[in-house]
Amino acid sequence: MRAVRNDESGIHVVERPEPEGDGALVDIASCGICGTDLGFLAMGPLPFTLGHEFAGMVDGVAYAIEPMTRCGVCAACVEGNDNRCIDPSHVNFGIFVDGGLADRVRVPEYCLTPLPVGLSVDDASLVETMGVAYRGVRMAAVQSGERVCVVGGGAIGLAAVGVARHKGIDVDLEARHQHQRGAAERLGAGIASPGAQSAYDVVIDAAGSESGLDRSFELVRPGGRVVLLGVYHGLVPIPGIPMLVKEVTMIPSMAYGVDVDGAREYANAAAVLAANPEIARSLITHRFPLDDAAEAFRVAADRASGSIKVVIHPDR
Length: 316
What we know:
The chain is of the alpha/beta class. It has two domains: 184 residues, Quinone Oxidoreductase, Chain A, domain 1 (Alpha-Beta Complex); 120 residues, Rossmann fold (3-Layer(aba) Sandwich), CATH 3.40.50. Helix content is 29%, strand content 25%. α3 crosses α4 and α3 packs across α8.
């Protein structure tokens, strides 16, 4: 079967053995390219198939795939935070183990999230992005009347906008590119004023950069909250004076687990997508067949070209 890997000369589609072992065999229908995947390119050759945002068919039924394993018995799993599972067997598909940028992959049965009515399997790879955003917005614990701003107009930031609007939260976006701001406006968000200072009760940093953190601490009011939704590689300096003077609460958020209603956050994120089709229309800007993976990665890395979320479809 075909699979996407990063070798000495970059991204290539290679032939790999069919996946073996236990679990459900998923015929991949869609797989998104994430910023994490782009980050892997800088690491050089890697001995695994990329892709942790994927959906597909199992025995003719469509599913979004929650790409994390869990032991189910450690304290984190029992309390519903299985994203923090401490079992050595805990893995993320597409992150140092084979993922979904391939024709097929095997996953545990519990990773299968049935698609709600109204959500196409071609759009369902976006559930992973929405799941990350869903948890971040939930952990922000926004109260009635609070002002919220998302910093960063990539897929995670815009997904956070979509989740917030679904929950009836007024939200602004601060983003670098006009096409990102346009997508936010289509989702019902406002645009943060370039000169805004101490204007928001909650700021969600979805940029994952030093400049994004700086701006988040500028935007948050004294006593406010900054949700750390970006991925920070290595040490990242926290703006010390604003943090101390404003007494800001920082809330890290990673992946997804169990929601307060007892349902999987992944399933609830899928329901948000199904109820708001404009989210997928606004976020998925480019689609490619698997054989064009190298070009798909090039486009995904060029935000100035108008890309937000690039999706690969092995069945095309």
